[in-house]
Design brief:
With 488 residues, the chain is an alpha/beta fold. It is built from 15 helices and 21 strands. The strands form 5 sheets. Strands 15-16-17-14-13-18-19 form a 7-stranded mixed β-sheet, with helices on both faces. Strands 10-9-8-11-12-20 form a 6-stranded mixed β-sheet, with helices on both faces. It has a 3-stranded mixed β-sheet with strand order 1-5-4, with no helix packed on it. 50% of the residues are buried. It binds nicotinamide-adenine-dinucleotide (NAD). Nicotinamide-adenine-dinucleotide binds next to helix 7 and helix 8.
C-alpha cells in the first residue's frame, strides 16, 4: 500500500494532526493508497519555510543554476517516466498510453522553461550617459500552486517549471483525490540538492488551498480547477493583492462545416470528446454541425460509439477508462438526464456499461445526445465526462453566435476546407485557443489559457514564465549633482 507524506522545509513529515485520506482506484473502488491529509496548520508551516528560503540563499541563484535544475528534473522525469505513468493511470483511471504521453509532455515542459530561463537577460534602456537604466525581471516570491485531479502532474509541471525557473519558492497542493504523482515528483525533487523550503508539498483539501490563497506570506497563487473554487481564490487573494493566475473550465465548441474533410472531422469529434473520458478542460464536447451534413454526421458517430473499448487503463486494448470519482459519475449521469428532459435525443450511452467488470468503479458509456439546442443546460454548462452534445446550425453567422454565447472561452475548433472561412472564424471566436482542422494539440511554446470565465492569465510560452516574475526598473545615477530647487 502506498503511503504519502508531506514535504516541508526539506523534511518528509506527517500532518500535525496525523490526518490521512484513502485514495481509491476509479477502476474498481479499491483503496490504492493512504495519503497524508494536511490542514491549514501544515500549510502555514510550508508557507513559512518557503518564505525563509525565498528571503535566504535561494535569491542568489543564477539563471544558469536554475536552468540546470529544470533540466535535471526533466532527466529524472524521463528516468521514472514509466513509474509515474503507472501511478497517474492508477489514480486517475486514464489509459496508460495517455499517461505516458503526459510524462513526455511534462519532461518537455521542464526543458522548454530551462531554455527560456537560460536566455533571460534584462534590458538596458536608453538614458543619459551618467545613468544606467535597466529593466530587470525578478521572482515574485512565495508561490502557492493548486492543481486539479484530471491532469495532476501535467498541470503541476506547467506551474512548477516556470515558478522555480524564475527563482521563486513553491508550496504545491495537488487535488486530494489524485496526489500520487505529485508525491512521487516531490521524491525526485528531494534527490536534488535544493535548499530546504524551496519546494514544499502539502496534500489536502480545499482548506489547504484556501490557506494558500489567503496567506499574506504568499505572493502569487496559480490555480487550475473549477469556477467555484476559482472565485473564492480570487476573493481571498485581495488580502494582500497577491498575483493570481486562474485556469478554469470550458464549454468548447467543435464546429463542423459541410465542406470539411468529414472522415477526419468524424474521427476528431471522438478524440475531442473522449480522451480521458471527457475529463479535459478543453474537451470538445459541444459538437456543432452544419445542417446539410448533420444527419449523416450523427449517423457516422452512432456507428463508432458502440465500438469504443471501455476498460481498465492498464489493458492494452482499452480506449477509454472510467471517470475519476463517484461524485463525477453521479454529476454526469444527472446532466445526461437533464438533457433528455429538455428534449435532447439519446443516440448512444447515458449509463453504466453492462457486465460484471463494470459493477465496481466509475464507468460510463461514451454518450451522444443529438438535437441539442443552444438554450439547453447541457449546451451551456461544463459536463466534464464522456458526453457529446450535438447541435445543428444553418449559417456561419449562426454558428459563430451560438459558439460565442457562453461565459467560457477556453478552446474551440473549426472544420472547413475554406481558408477564408477558417481565418474569419479563428479571428471571431472568443477563445484562448482556436484549432482549425484539428483538436487538442498544445505544446510548451504556445500559450494556454482562457478568455472570459475560463480564467485569468496564461500558462506555457514566454508569458507562462513572465507571470512568475516582477518587472523592476533599476536606475543608477553615476554622477549625482545638486538640483538646487528647494530653498537653495
Ligand atoms: P476544483 O475546483 O474542485 O479543485 C481544484 C483544486 O482546488 C483542488 O486541489 C482542490 O482541492 C482545490 N480547491 C477546492 N476548493 C478550493 C478553495 N475554496 N480554495 C482553494 N483551493 C480549493 O476542480 P477539480 O474538480 O479538481 O477540476 C476540474 C475543473 O478544473 C474543471 O472545471 C476543469 O475544466 C478545470 N480545469 C481547467 C484546466 C485549464 O487549463 N483551464 C485544466 C484542467 C482542469
Amino acid at each position: 500500500m502506498i503511503q504519502t507524506q508531506l514535504y516541508i522545509d526539506g523534511q518528509w513529515q506527517s500532518p500535525i494532526d496525523q490526518g490521512t485520506r484513502a485514495i481509491v482506484s476509479p477502476a474498481d473502488e479499491t483503496v490504492i493508497a493512504q495519503a497524508a491529509e494536511a490542514t491549514r496548520a501544515d500549510a502555514r508551516l510550508a508557507i513559512a519555510a518557503a518564505r525563509r528560503a525565498f528571503d535566504g540563499p535561494w535569491r542568489q541563484t543564477t539563471i544558469r543554476d536554475r536552468a540546470r535544475l529544470l533540466n535535471k528534473i526533466a532527466e529524472l522525469i524521463d528516468r521514472d517516466a514509466e513509474k509515474l505513468a503507472h501511478l497517474e493511470s492508477l489514480n486517475t483511471g486514464k489509459t496508460l498510453t495517455e499517461s505516458r504521453t503526459d510524462m513526455g509532455d511534462i519532461a518537455a515542459t521542464f526543458r522548454y522553461f530551462a531554455g527560456l530561463v537560460a536566455s533571460e537577460s534584462g534590458a538596458v534602456n536608453e538614458a543619459p550617459h551618467h545613468v544606467i537604466s535597466r529593466t530587470l525581471r525578478e521572482p515574485v516570491g512565495v508561490c502557492g500552486l493548486i492543481t486539479p485531479w484530471n491532469y495532476p502532474l501535467l498541470q503541476a509541471a506547467w506551474k512548477i517549471a516556470p515558478a522555480l525557473g524564475a527563482g521563486n519558492t513553491v508550496v504545491i497542493k495537488p487535488s486530494n483525490l489524485t496526489p500520487l504523482t505529485t508525491h512521487h515528483f516531490t521524491q525526485l525533487v528531494a534527490e536534488l540538492d535544493l535548499p530546504p523550503g524551496v519546494f514544499n508539498l502539502v496534500t489536502g483539501g480545499a482548506e489547504v488551498g484556501a490557506e494558500l490563497a489567503e496567506s499574506v506570506d504568499v505572493d502569487l497563487v496559480s490555480f487550475t480547477g473549477g469556477a467555484f473554487a476559482g472565485e473564492s481564490i480570487m476573493k481571498a487573494a485581495t488580502g494582500n493583492f497577491k498575483r493570481i493566475g486562474l485556469e478554469l473550465g470550458g464549454k468548447n465548441p467543435n464546429i463542423v462545416f459541410a465542406d470539411a474533410d468529414l472522415d477526419a472531422a468524424v474521427d476528431y469529434a471522438l478524440n475531442a470528446a473522449f480522451f480521458h473520458a471527457g475529463q479535459v478542460c478543453s474537451a470538445g464536447s459541444r459538437l456543432m454541425v452544419e445542417d446539410s451534413i448533420y444527419d449523416a454526421f450523427i449517423g457516422r458517430l452512432a456507428e463508432r460509439l458502440p465500438r469504443i473499448v471501455i476498460g481498465n487503463g492498464f489493458h492494452g486494448e482499452t480506449q477509454m477508462g472510467p471517470v475519476q470519482s463517484a461524485q463525477q459519475h453521479e454529476k454526469i449521469l444527472g446532466m445526461v438526464q437533464a438533457g433528455i428532459a429538455e428534449g435532447a435525443r439519446l443516440v448512444h450511452g447515458g449509463k453504466r456499461p453492462a457486465g460484471d467488470v463494470y459493477k465496481n468503479g466509475y464507468w460510463l458509456e461514451p454518450t451522444l445526445l443529438a438535437d441539442v439546442t443552444a438554450g439547453m443546460k447541457i449546451a451551456k454548462e461544463e459536463i466534464f465526462g464522456p458526453v457529446i452534445t450535438a447541435e445543428r446550425f444553418r449559417s456561419e453567422a449562426e454558428a459563430l453566435r451560438a459558439a460565442n454565447d457562453t461565459p467560457y472561452g477556453l478552446a474551440a475548433a473549426v472544420w472547413t476546407r475554406d481558408l477564408d472561412k477558417a481565418n474569419r472564424m479563428s479571428r471571431a471566436l472568443r477563445f484562448g485557443t482556436v484549432w482549425v482542422n484539428d483538436y487538442h494539440p498544445y505544446f510548451p511554446e504556445a500559450p494556454w489559457g482562457g478568455y472570459k470565465a475560463s480564467g485569468i492569465g496564461r500558462e506555457l510560452a514566454r508569458i507562462g514564465l513572465d507571470e512568475y516574475t516582477e518587472l523592476k526598473h533599476s536606475y543608477i545615477n553615476l554622477a549625482p549633482k545638486a538640483m538646487g530647487w528647494f530653498g537653495a
